[in-house]
Amino acid sequence: MPEFMDVHRNMTGITKEDLKAAHDADLAIQSEENVEFKSAWADPDAGVVYCLSEAPSAEAVQRIHERAGHRADEVHPVPLRV
Q1: What DSSP letter does each residue of 16-71 carry, written as one string?
Q2: I need a labelling partner for 24 at 20 to 30 A (CA). Which of 6, 40, 46, 50 fits?
Q3: Can you say how many angstroms the Cα of residue 57 is from the centroid of all Cα atoms in its chain?
Q4: What is the pTM of this model?
Q5: Is 82 exposed, middle or buried (0-12, 13-18, 19+ CB in 10 A)?
Q6: Is 82 helix (H, G, I), strand (E, B) or coil?
Q7: b or e along 57-74 (b: 16 or more beta carbons within 10 Å of the residue's beta carbon)?
Q8: Which tens digits make up the pLDDT trace of 69-82?
Q9: 6 and 50 Cβ atoms separated by less than 8 Å
Q10: Whole-angstrom Cα distance, residue 14 to residue 77?
């Protein structure tokens, strides 16, 4: 299944607990779109969050994020990895 990296901006000050809660919200409903969120990272000072997932499409990733309450600003395919 294809991988995607998505980016959330304007999240300055996000805490580890906030990140975990957002990630857990995605995990709770991910199967409804056949998405598997693998990891999430945050830079609280820059206000940027990154999520790596496997999904049938970028749209499926976005639908899960929207339903979980944190729409991604960008969703990028990851066609190559080393």
Answers
A1: HHHHHHHHHHHHHHGGGGT-EEEEEEEETTTTEEEEEEE-S-HHHHHHHHHHHT--
A2: 46
A3: 13
A4: 0.94
A5: exposed
A6: coil
A7: bbebbbbbbeebebebee
A8: 999 999 999 999 89
A9: yes
A10: 25
pLDDT of residue 52: 98
| Residue 10 DSSP code | S
Contacts 24+ apart (CB under 8 A), 45-48: 45/12, 46/12, 47/9, 47/10, 47/11, 47/12, 47/13, 47/14, 48/7, 48/8, 48/9, 48/11
Residue located via tokens 């206000």: 47
Contact 60, 3 (CB under 8 A): no
